[in-house]
Amino acid sequence: MSVRPWLLAxxxxxxxxxxxxxxxxxxxxVYVLPSAxxxxxxxxxxxxxxxxxxxxxxxxLASTRLLVMPSEQQLSAYENARWADLAPVLVRDxxxxxxxxxxxxxxxxxxxxxxxARIELVSDLRAFHIEYVNGTPEARIRLDAQxxxxxxxxxxxxxxxxxxxxxxxxxxxxxxxxxxxxxxELAMQLMEWSYQYIPES
Length: 201
Hints:
Radius of gyration: 24 Å
CATH architecture: 3-Layer(aba) Sandwich
Mean pLDDT: 89
Low-confidence stretches: 6-19
């Protein structure tokens, strides 16, 4: 009895699906930026709304890759690990949440909100990565920030912030936690600085 050609084709394709020469990609570990929100402030409220724009960043930084600098001249990325969003967006959302939890301002919004905010915080994200210093991983964040009075088109203040946090280990969980602590410290410094220049009304 002869075997029909189409049966041979089905058997061949079935064999390919069961055993393929193409390697299966490993699943990504997707990380969010950890946060320890500040306690609500008991200082006097400021009757202003703040628009906190997404930081500008280079093409390398404006990605979901979890970056690491194993040596002074080399910038790489952890394999099979990604942020849940673009790094500048993670930083923006982290800072907005800190301002809101602190509670001194009437409202804190991003650039997509239709809320009328006279004060704007614009920035450039210059560093957001893990850096090895004498063999020890450290989280490093550098942000150039500028407070602007949108109504008067006036720069109120400008400052560079740089924060470092030593990681408790070399694992992905440890370095992500270090970046979270660095972001918390950045938020506290940024708020203390901003409140000095935001007019009370």
